[in-house]
Amino acid sequence: MAGPEREVESYLLRLNGRAWGVACGLLFGLGLFAATNFLLIVGGPNVGQHLNLLSVYFPGYAVTFVGSLIGFVYAFVVGYATGRIVSGVYNLAARTR
Amino acid sequence: MQRTIVERDLAELPRELRLAFAPLDKRAFGIAVGAWAGLAILGVTVYHLLLDRWLLENVAYLANAKYSGDTLWLLAQYFRGYDPTTLTGALIGGLWGLWTGFVTGWFVAFARNLVVAGWLFAIRTREQLAANREFLDHI
Is the distance from CB of A30 to CB of A2 less than 8 angstroms? Predict the structure, then answer.
């Protein structure tokens, strides 16, 4: 493959790290926020029995409204790191193909 | 090198649109997701190994647990050899994560490329049909 064509292809194959970070961050963050509040709205005798276990990894998180906001921040950070790792490793692997 | 239908279709598009329709590299995406999954399982297991005592003392939901990472045992149902209580088990879990992540990532990229290719084909076919709509009027 010719040089400029190869350059275009490698450019096309690149993922934007920040965009992937923000996208994954919002996906994770809003996912946890929605899951927590869904359980709160549904209610029941033992609300969030399993979701509460996330407090092992996210100190301060709980199945409450305030906890869902704290969880959003934590999950956003984890999601951002996920997006950055996936896009970074992808770009590296696609370049060395 | 023989170009695929998708590559030929892409070559006809303006540069900005080519970016939107460019296929994902399946192998690279598999490696990327695999690396993340492997690191996640390894990291979570090591986190429990290092902070077990502190977690048992400070997290209310672990009051009756013998080991802070008890729930991680569920992974051993799928990942043979995985053990959340040892470093070797954590490494085995990391390798399992790498493999399952690779398969997942490869398949996601494949499915995404398939949908994009089908979408391009549909757009092109629709445009070709629209261009030939008045064909019979000329006979």
Answer: no
d(CA B122, CA B21): 13
- Contact (CB<8Å) B25/A90: yes
Contacts of A97 in chain B (CB under 8 A): 25, 27-28
The structure's pTM equals: 0.79
B16-40: burial string, b at 16+ Cβ within 10 Å, e else? eebeebbbbbbbbbbbbbbbbbbbb
Query: Residue A53 carries which DSSP code?
Result: G
Considering CB atoms only, which of B27, B31, B59 is closest to A56? Answer: B59
Q: Which residues of A touch B38 (CB under 8 A)?
A: none
Amino acid A16 reads N
User: DSSP letter at A26?
Assistant: H
Q: Where are the domains of chain B?
A: 25-131
pLDDT tens-digit profile of A56-88? 899 999 999 999 999 999 999 999 999 999 999
Chain B: residue whose CA lies nearest to A51 = B61
Residue B1: pLDDT band (50, 70, 90) is very low
pLDDT in tens, B41-55: 999 999 999 988 888
> Cα(B111)–Cα(B117) distance, rounded to whole angstroms?
10
